[in-house]
UniProtKB/TrEMBL annotation:
<keyword id="KW-0472">Membrane</keyword>
<keyword id="KW-0343">GTPase activation</keyword>
<dbReference type="GO" id="GO:0003008">
    <property type="term" value="P:system process"/>
</dbReference>
<keyword id="KW-1133">Transmembrane helix</keyword>
<dbReference type="InterPro" id="IPR002048">
    <property type="entry name" value="EF_hand_dom"/>
</dbReference>
<feature type="domain" description="Rab-GAP TBC">
    <location>
        <begin position="515"/>
        <end position="702"/>
    </location>
</feature>
<protein>
    <recommendedName>
        <fullName>TBC1 domain family member 9B</fullName>
    </recommendedName>
</protein>
<comment type="function">
    <text>May act as a GTPase-activating protein for Rab family protein(s).</text>
</comment>
<dbReference type="InterPro" id="IPR011993">
    <property type="entry name" value="PH-like_dom_sf"/>
</dbReference>
<dbReference type="Pfam" id="PF00566">
    <property type="entry name" value="RabGAP-TBC"/>
</dbReference>
<keyword id="KW-0677">Repeat</keyword>
<dbReference type="InterPro" id="IPR036017">
    <property type="entry name" value="TCB1D9/TCB1D9B_PH-GRAM2"/>
</dbReference>
<keyword id="KW-0812">Transmembrane</keyword>
<dbReference type="InterPro" id="IPR036014">
    <property type="entry name" value="TCB1D9/TCB1D9B_PH-GRAM1"/>
</dbReference>
<feature type="compositionally biased region" description="Basic and acidic residues">
    <location>
        <begin position="1093"/>
        <end position="1109"/>
    </location>
</feature>
<keyword id="KW-0597">Phosphoprotein</keyword>
<dbReference type="GO" id="GO:0005509">
    <property type="term" value="F:calcium ion binding"/>
</dbReference>
Length: 1237
């Protein structure tokens, strides 16, 4: 019977018409657009009614059970209702009702037309249904599912190539003005795309992630929850998502990957290595899963400070027995390749990290009702950890044992040293090598040192222990206080464990806040930062690096040498060669480990402090942890990380100190202070003894602590800062305050602080106790959360990187604008196109060479470089000289001409120089570019057989050119010699020399090169409105120049070479058999007509004396090797008239369509003139022509002059180029505009 049928689940319905909304249904809730109804007979009703309704249901539809609740859509004047959702319980249907009220009600009130409202609601509901269905698994393995369909649709709709992968797609509305457009949002690896077709209107959006400047999820008056996507020139709003949080998180991840690409190619290449599934993608995108996994990995590594290559395998809920308070603490266990970690639910309760290299036994204990599914893990340090309430214990144990088998069993050398620092008696552990035992002139000085057999380059401990002056403090009350601190830590170690497997609790943080004792500082910094893990898993790594890097020089080592003596010069440890040598080795080793960062100022200050408390190897790994994990991107050339955290600091100031925020903004102080505070962790602005306590807390808490202390400092000085008139005054107030932050508990003798100069005036300054400052910062600002800071970092990173990119664009444009004809606006547009082409090669190129070739240490101008294929694509879309099928050939030649250092890449300046040559200047300048394109190096040896002979002309004359760099330069390997930057300085100096190239400096052109030039010109004119005139003009000029070359040959000193065994058609590039008969006839007629036309030539030359005279003089001056002016020396025998010209032009234009002008046709056409007929048909190697002769001949033809003098608008070409940028996918015939509809 019907009642036993399964209840339908709550669901959206593809809107169905309902004519009688009242029959058998009771309306429970209503608003102007929707009704929520309950089926009569459900809920509180009389038994008779229930029976009647049940019977009706069975009679009317015996196959299905009707859901007891439904939602209808209605409009005021319409009699028709539409069912949009149904559900089996009030609770279920209420969820749908609330979604409609929150997301649609306000929006629908905007529409004027009721039909539009219904169309919109139906479209929205269909979109939701499609989105819910996309996650259902397909029926069979062969069915690629809805996701694959969506990916194909996306490619076709937006013209994306195969390599562009869809990550996910969502149903939503895009707000165009005040009207929402319901459609689909496609998120791909590199683009955000939206498509909608509704009410007869189409909307298409395509935005590259690299162009996104801001992503925000917010609520406005118009729509409750929406995502705002900002680019440099538009703001886009999307709303009505089924799951807005998931969508926003994914958008953030994709934008973040794009920012990494702009910031640092190495990280981007790792990001780009998203999985390439072997089988077609199923409904759930593999990329989406991968991105989710990556986000979890990053969070896991950050929480437990694990190495960058650690991958989370899984996590599960459990409890951990904590012996120090005899409790089972609920939390989560995380398992990865090399670690088992635990984090309690209550943030402060307990954190635990167990490296698998320490684990000895993993065993399942007996379950009981008190302790279900317990698991005990024992370590080498005799600690045992009890976990319980594990859901899938057997599987977990199997995974852990799998990872344990992969963990190297034998101990790497150098890890035998457990934490055996005898704290109780510092005298025994203080000095294992006395300062006298290693004199500064010993092997430590400059020679690379072998680290084997326990030899340590400086000492087995930090420099502080070697250079501690006999201090009375050790025996006084401060010494006693220090002993008490050490004793507190010893008790803590006894209760909570020591080493990596220590239970980290609120008690640990309390002890850190009170200051770590000097003897324990190195050990605890290594533990809390996670540097210890990397050090013990890479034994000998640092020693090898030192050996490789010592004695090698590059820009980084020069900067290091310069800063060595500026690193804590006031400390005795760095007033001698021992400390300086240790600092040199650590910084140089790091520069070689990470050339992307190399060396950045501020690293020297931080490293010198690390060396005071740790040995060299430990200091090195702490530096790695700082630069690569704890302060990401801080120490690269653009200090991006510090700028990002500066933005966070500004945001927090607005939130916590609103009255001060505006004042600080006006004074511009935050940007000045935050960089110096954050980059050196206060070490450069506070007395050393106080700043080192900040470093203690930083290694335990991370950047969160630096931000909260910075807020506390501003808060303490608020009154004074509000009275300030300018930045200088505010800086002095803060400088004085920081100068007087003292550590009264320090046992080290005070080190004079460089900033003490600021403390002037009559009254003695007020001293601030560092521990009080830290305590205040926790009391007032401790509710900062690490997760929130990561979220803010993402938002700020978008802003910072995009503003840096804008700065880079401006500086590049300024740098190249001086001697290039484009306006600033045109240059900026060209830069955008150029950069986009480079970036496209990074993610759509088949190889990764493009991404690998960006070097952040180079000047901005050199950072983006494109190869020949990319240049050809840009050339084809931007050139004013379109040559049809010949255009790529011309592009290749121009590329070779511009690529002066022969590395097969050109930078932006070279690119715009090439473009400018075609767009700007007079006829002479443009012809000069065209002329050079038909000489080596632009002309390839393969393109003309005699190019090698022509090269001899080129190399003879190249020394007279202003641009001596055209000769191949030996490429230097980056980072091997100090010539790296000197080379650039020389290049710039050379550019500064304004040695103007004259037309006389251009080498002569051989006959073969000249024929190539003619071929280019024919192709160039093929689509011009006045192509007939141009063909006639170029035929005239080409014929004339061939004869001039012949005459010139007679006056050269070289004997002419006769070509003997040549037939009429045995030319280089002979006519193919498939050639059309028309063209063969025409060529023959041209050859036949030539002799009879000879006698009229003189008249044709004499007829235009006023035109040719001025050029004649120029030509006479410029001809070398004893040649006279060929034009003045022409005789009856050597000249032809316009009859032969016209018959020649008929060959080229009359009898052939422009696309039929094959390479060989044009060549034979050229040789069909009398010169070729008379002197034989092979290429004449003694024949040559100069640029001046070509120019003079061209000037006689108005059509040619007009063609080269006409102006072309490059901005229009750039606009067109952007439109079709993504249209090289053959699947799309759809014209795309960036924002259309």
């Amino acid at each position: 019977p019907a009642p036993s049928a399964p209840q339908p689940r709550p669901m959206w319905l593809g809107p169905e018409e309902v004519l009688l909304a009242g029959a058998l249904w009771v309306t429970e809730r209503a608003n102007p657009f929707f009704l929520l109804q309950r089926r009569r007979g459900h809920g509180p009703a009389r038994p008779g009614v229930r029976l009647l309704v049940g019977t009706l249901d069975v009679v009317l539809d015996s196959s299905a059970r009707v859901a007891p609740y439904r939602i209808l859509h209605q409009t005021q004047d319409s009699q028709v209702y539409w069912a949009v959702a149904c559900g089996s319980s009030r609770k279920e249907i209420t969820k749908h009702w609330e979604w409609l009220e929150n997301n649609l009600l306000q929006t629908l009130s905007i529409f004027d037309n009721e039909e539009d409202i219904t169309t919109f609601v139906k479209g929205k509901i269909h979109g939701i249904i499609a989105e819910e269905n996309k996650n259902e698994q397909p029926q069979s393995e062969e069915d690629p599912g809805k996701f694959k369909e969506a990916e194909l649709k996306m490619r076709k709709q937006f013209g994306m190539p195969e390599v562009e992968k869809l990550v996910n797609y969502y149903s939503c509305s895009y707000w165009k003005g005040r009207v929402p457009r319901q459609g689909w949002l496609y998120l791909t690896v590199n683009h955000l795309c939206f498509y909608s077709f509704l009410l007869g209107k189409e909307v298409t959006l395509v935005i590259q992630w690299v162009d996104v400047t801001q992503l925000e999820k917010n609520a406005t008056l118009l729509f409750p929850e929406c995502i705002k996507v900002s680019t440099r020139d538009s703001e886009l709003y999307f709303s009505m998502f089924l799951n807005i949080n998931e969508t926003f998180k994914l958008m953030e991840q994709l934008a973040n990957i794009a920012m990494r690409q702009l910031l640092d190619n190495e990280s981007f290449l790792q990001d780009k290595s998203l999985p390439k599934p072997r089988r077609p993608l199923k409904n759930i995108s593999a990329l989406k899963r991968d991105l989710d996994a990556r986000a979890k990995n990053e969070c896991y590594r950050a929480t437990f400070r694990l190495p960058k290559d650690e991958c989370l395998d899984g996590h599960t809920d459990c409890t951990l027995w904590t012996p120090f308070n005899k409790m089972h603490i609920p939390g989560q266990m995380f398992v990865s390749n090399n670690y088992i970690c635990f984090a309690s639910r209550a943030e402060e309760a307990c954190h635990l990290i167990i490296p698998l290299r320490e684990v000895t036994i993993v065993e399942k204990a007996d379950s009981s009702s008190v302790l279900p599914s317990p698991l005990s893990i024992s370590t080498k340090s005799k600690m045992t950890f009890f976990f319980a309430n594990l859901k899938d214990r057997d599987f977990l144990v199997q995974r852990i044992s799998d990872f344990l088998q992969r963990t190297p069993s034998k101990k790497p050398c150098g890890i035998d040293r457990e934490w055996k620092w005898n704290v109780a008696d510092p005298s025994t552990s203080a000095v294992s090598v006395s300062p006298l035992a290693i004199s500064p002139t010993s092997a430590l000085g400059h020679r690379p040192i072998s680290f084997c057999a326990g030899q340590v380059p400086t000492a087995s401990q930090g420099l502080l222990k070697l250079f501690r002056r006999n201090s009375e403090e050790l025996s006084g009350p401060k010494g006693a206080k220090e002993k008490m601190k050490e004793e507190s830590w010893n008790i803590h170690f006894f209760e909570y464990g020591r080493g990596m497997c220590m239970y980290r609790t609120a008690k640990t943080r309390e002890l850190v806040q009170k200051g770590i004792p000097e003897n324990l500082r190195g050990e605890l910094w290594l533990l809390f930062s996670g540097a210890w893990n990397e050090m013990v898993t890479h034994p000998g790594y640092y020693a090898d690096l030192v050996e490789k890097s010592m004695g090698r020089y590059n820009l980084a080592t020069e900067e290091i040498e310069r800063d060595l003596h500026r690193s804590m010069p006031e400390h005795p440890a760095f007033q001698n060669e021992l400390g300086i040598a240790a600092l040199r080795r650590v910084l140089t080793a790091y520069a070689f480990r990470n050339p992307t960062i190399g060396y950045c100022q501020a690293m020297n200050i931080v490293t010198s402090v690390l060396l005071l408390y740790c040995n060299e190897e430990e200091a090195f790994w702490l530096l790695v942890a700082l630069c690569e994990r704890m302060l990401p991107d801080y120490y690269n050339t653009r200090v991006v990380g510090a700028l990002v955290d500066q933005g966070i600091f500004e945001e927090l100031t607005r939130e916590y100190l609103p009255q001060l925020s505006e004042k600080m903004q006006d004074l511009g102080v935050i940007s000045t202070i935050s960089l110096s505070w954050f980059l050196t962790l206060f070490l450069s602005v506070m007395p050393f003894e106080s700043a080192v306590v900040i470093v203690d807390c930083f290694f335990y808490e991370g950047i969160k602590f630096i931000l909260q202390v910075s807020l506390a400092i501003l808060d303490a000085n608020m009154e004074k800062l509000l009275q300030c008139c300018d930045e200088g005054e505010a800086m002095t107030i803060l400088g004085r305050y920081l100068d007087n932050v003292v550590n009264r508990q320090s046992v080290s003798p005070p080190i004079p602080h460089l900033h003490a100069l600021l403390t002037s005036g009559d009254e003695p300054p007020l001293e601030i106790d560092i521990f009080e400052l830290i305590k205040t910062s926790y009391e007032k600002f401790s509710n900062l959360k690490a997760d929130d800071i990561e979220q803010m970092r993402f938002k700020q990173r978008l802003k910072v990187i995009q503003s840096l990119e804008d700065t880079a664009k401006k500086s590049v444009v300024r740098a190249v604008s001086g001697d290039i004809g484009f306006s600033m606006e045109e240059l900026e547009e060209l830069y955008v196109v150029f950069k986009a082409k480079y970036l496209m090669s990074c993610y759509w190129g088949n190889n990764r060479a493009a991404a690998a070739r960006r070097d952040q240490s180079l000047p901005y101008l050199e950072q983006y470089r494109i190869d020949m294929e990319q240049f050809k694509e840009l050339f084809i879309s931007l050139t004013p000289w379109s040559c049809g099928a010949h255009t790529p050939v011309l592009a290749g030649r121009l590329f070779r001409l511009l690529d002066e250092n022969r590395d097969s890449l050109i930078n932006f300046k070279e690119f715009v120089t090439g473009m400018s040559g075609m767009y700007h200047g007079d006829l002479t300048e443009k012809l000069k570019v065209l002329y050079k394109l038909h000489l080596p190096p632009a002309l390839n040896p393969e393109e003309t057989e005699s190019a090698l002979e022509a090269t001899s002309y080129f190399t003879e004359d190249v020394t007279t050119e202003g641009n001596a760099t055209l000769l191949p330069l030996p490429l230097k390997e980056k980072g091997t010699s100090p010539q790296d930057y000197r080379y650039y300085l020389r290049m710039w100096a050379k550019e500064k020399e304004s040695k103007k190239e004259t037309i006389k400096d251009l080498p002569k052109m051989s006959q073969e090169q000249f024929i190539e030039l003619c071929k280019t010109l024919y192709n160039m004119f093929s689509e011009d409105p006045v192509e007939q005139e141009l063909y006639h003009a170029i035929a005239t000029v080409a014929s004339l120049l061939l004869r001039i070359g012949e005459v010139g040959k007679k006056f050269s000193n070289r004997p002419t070479r006769k070509s003997e065994d040549c037939k009429a058609n045995s030319t280089q590039d002979p006519v193919s058999e498939e050639e059309s008969p028309t063209s063969e006839q025409s060529q023959n007629s041209a050859v036949e007509q030539t002799p009879q036309a000879d006698h009229e030539d003189k008249a044709s030359i004499d007829a235009q004396p006023e035109k040719t005279q001025p050029e004649n003089q120029t030509l006479g001056d410029g001809s070398g090797e004893g040649q006279g002016s060929p034009l003045q020396l022409l005789s009856d025998d050597e000249t032809k008239d316009d009859m032969s010209m016209s018959s020649y032009s008929m060959v080229s234009t009359g009898s052939l369509q422009c696309e039929d002008i094959a390479d060989d046709t044009v060549l034979v056409g050229c040789e069909g003139s009398s010169a070729a007929a008379r002197y034989g048909s092979t290429i004449d190697t003694d024949w040559s022509i100069s640029f001046e002769q070509i120019l003079a001949s061209m000037l006689t033809e108005t059509a040619l002059v007009n063609y080269f003098e006409k102006k072309v608008n490059i901005l229009q070409k750039i606009k067109d180029q952007k439109k079709v940028e993504r249209q090289f996918s053959s699947s799309s015939d759809y014209e795309l505009s960036s924002v259309s509809g």
